[in-house]
Amino acid sequence: MVSNPERRAALVDAGVEVLAREGARGLTFRAVDAEAGVPVGTASNYFTGRADLLRQIDTRLHTRLAPDPDVVAELMTRPRDRSLVTAFMYDLMARATRDRTGYLALMELRLEATRRPELLASYTKSVRGDLEEAMEFHRTAGLPGGDESVAVLYLAMLGLLLEHLTLPGVLEGVLPGVSVPDGLVERIVATVLPEGQAGQAGEV
Questions:
Q1: Own/partner pairs, 165-173, CB within 8 angstroms, 24+ separation
Q2: 155-171 burial by CB neighbour count: b if 16+ within 10 A, else e?
Q3: Low-confidence ranges of the chain (pLDDT < 70)
Q4: Closest Cα partner for 53 from 101, 121, 61?
Q5: What was the pLDDT predicted at 3?
Q6: Within a 10 A sphere around the Cβ of 187, how many other Cβ atoms?
Q7: Cα(114)–Cα(193) distance, rounded to whole angstroms?
Q8: Where, if anywhere, are coiled coils annotated (predicted)?
Q9: Where would I find the H helices in 142-181?
Q10: What is the pTM of this model?
Q11: Which of 151, 147, 160, 158 is nearest to 187 (CA)?
């Protein structure tokens, strides 16, 4: 395998673009080469096969879509209450919306994982790791609610992101007077963390 970190990263990002636009079936080395603007055959020198490329796309997307440490640091200066949890959910929505291509590629990875046992194992591990990391962050930060709250927030936000980034018309006006997506983010957090639970930080 060729060792050129910058070229490899560019090829992986090109793979993200192809995966989001064409789906897993369109993710060929030739398509990645064309997207990256490199000679035909370049990608085959950097990846052992499509499974290797998919795994590296998974790793890259978890970096691309990760929270900005500076944003997290600023948010953590605020009171540890429900409004802070809402702010974190706003940040999640903003990151996914800014990098819609990356998030769509993540969705395609989920579908492809159902067809490829080797990808299913690695992708399940990475997503589960993200969820457990979110639970640990919530506990350590002293945010209201506990692991159950984080799990429900995860599931609710996953559904909101899926609809908003793929079929936004489904949600438009579904709750009169509630904006999409910000108003729905607020409703999700308020439902998962009712006012009476606001001070129960760390409870599981």
A1: 165/96, 165/97, 165/100, 165/103, 165/104, 165/107, 166/104, 166/107
A2: ebbeebbebbbeeeeeb
A3: 1-2, 196-204
A4: 61
A5: 75
A6: 14
A7: 33
A8: none
A9: 147-166
A10: 0.91
A11: 160
Residue 168 amino acid letter: P
- Based on its alpha-carbon atoms, the radius of gyration of the chain, rounded to whole angstroms, reads 19
Distance CA 52, CA 38 (A): 19
Peptide linkage before 117 cis (omega within 30 of 0): no
Q: What does the block give as tokens for 19? A: 């995966």
User: How far is the C-alpha of 61 from the C-alpha of 105, rounded, in Å?
Assistant: 8
CB atoms within 10 A of CB 28: 15
At residue 197, the pLDDT reads 58
Query: Sign (positive/negative) of CA torsion 167, 111, 57, 129?
Result: positive
Tokens linked to 179: 């904006």
Token code pair at residue 6: 């910058």
